[in-house]
Specification:
This protein is 14% helix and 54% strand. Strand 1 and strand 2 form a beta hairpin.
Length: 245
């Protein structure tokens, strides 16, 4: 599933890249990048784009609120699947990890150097929030090798599995960060880079177990207590935008 979303992003990015190349080939019809592309810290007057980052792939809309201020509305989604090998109480284990993250966000930005020039012209300070309609994970753990019970080897499937579910409340989470919102590529295309962090609600933990591992579900409260401070979700993101005028 994760691969599918990466493929979608690559496809969208390829579309924007092809459009960018087409625009470059038509350069003789557009003498140069217009001054309006540099007049605001955010793409002016409005821009639509795609992005990819630690919170997933998605789309966004930029709207300037004057030369030095602007807002961005976006939506992101990311499924995540992997396997982790480890050791617990000297027993080799294998864990299947599944996680999903989906949000819609609204951020406001201030570009203090928008009227200048150079690399920091589109630098901005951001504040806002996102509603995470999906933010949870599931960890299913089983033994990799047979369990020795006296002279008997018990197959891992008969020992059982432990499934741990972690879920964050569906709510609006505040965000703060910095970024470069209008790195001009040509007369209509620009690029952005964002670095920031969401402050999440406290996670809740539940456990289910089968076979010989059923007694381990009592550890759910301990795991939840140990995870109560896992409330910071970094956001590192880049994307491309198409400016309309």
């Amino acid at each position: 599933m994760k691969v599918r979303f990466i493929q979608v992003f690559v496809m969208l990015s390829s579309f924007f890249t092809l459009a960018l190349l087409s625009g470059a080939q038509a350069g003789e019809q557009r003498d140069s990048i217009p001054e309006s592309a540099y007049s605001h810290g955010y793409p002016y007057p409005v821009a639509l784009g795609v992005h990819m980052g630690t919170t997933g792939v998605g789309v966004h809309l930029y709207q300037p609120l004057g030369p030095k201020f602007g807002l961005r509305v976006g939506a992101s989604y990311m499924p995540f699947n992997t396997q982790i090998a480890g050791t617990y109480n000297n027993y080799a284990t294998r864990s299947d990890v599944k996680a999903k993250s989906g949000n819609v966000s609204l951020t406001f930005g201030w570009t203090p150097f928008a009227q200048g020039s150079g690399f920091f012209r589109s630098f901005n300070i951001q504040a806002g929030g996102a509603y995470f309609y999906k933010l949870d994970g599931e960890l299913t753990t089983r033994l990799r090798d047979p369990y020795k019970f006296g002279e008997i080897n018990v197959h891992p499937d008969h020992v059982g599995t432990i499934t741990t579910d972690v879920e964050w409340k569906k709510t609006v989470n505040p965000y703060a960060g910095i970024g470069w919102s209008n790195i001009v590529i040509d007369s209509r295309f620009s690029m952005h880079i964002d670095l920031g962090c969401y402050y999440l609600s406290k996670p809740s933990v539940s456990m289910q177990a089968t076979g010989l591992l059923e007694e381990n579900v009592s550890n759910a409260a301990t795991i939840e207590r140990n995870m109560k401070n896992y409330r910071y979700l970094p956001r590192v993101e880049f994307g491309f935008s198409y400016r309309f005028w």
